[in-house]
Amino acid sequence: MKISVIGCGYLGAVHAATLASMGHSVVGIDVDPGKAAQLAQGTAPFHEPGLDELLAHGRATGRLRFSTDPAEARTAQVHFLCVGTPQDKTSDAADLTFLVSALEGLLPHLAAGAVVVGKSTVPVGTVDMLREILARRPDVLLGWNPEFLRQGTAVKDSLVPDRLVYGVEGGRPAAFNPHTGAPTGVTAALDAVYEPLLAAGIPRLVCNFATAELIKSAANAYLATKVSFINAVAELCDAAGADVTELSGAMGLDPRIGSRYLHAGLGFGGGCLPKDIRSFRAQAATLGVPAVEQWMRLVDAVNLGQRERTVGLAAELCGGTPAGRSITVLGASFKPDTDDIRDSPALDVADRLAAAGAHVTVTDPKAVNLAWRRYPRLRFEASAARALQDAELVLLLTEWDEYRQLCPAAAGQQVRRRVVLDARNVLDAAAWQEQGWVVRGLGTSSGAVTAAAVR
Ligand SMILES: NC(=O)c1ccc[n+]([C@@H]2O[C@H](COP(=O)([O-])OP(=O)(O)OC[C@H]3O[C@@H](n4cnc5c(N)ncnc54)[C@H](O)[C@@H]3O)[C@@H](O)[C@H]2O)c1
Question: Where does the UDP-glucose/GDP-mannose dehydrogenase C-terminal domain lie (predicted)?
Answer without folding.
Answer: 328-429
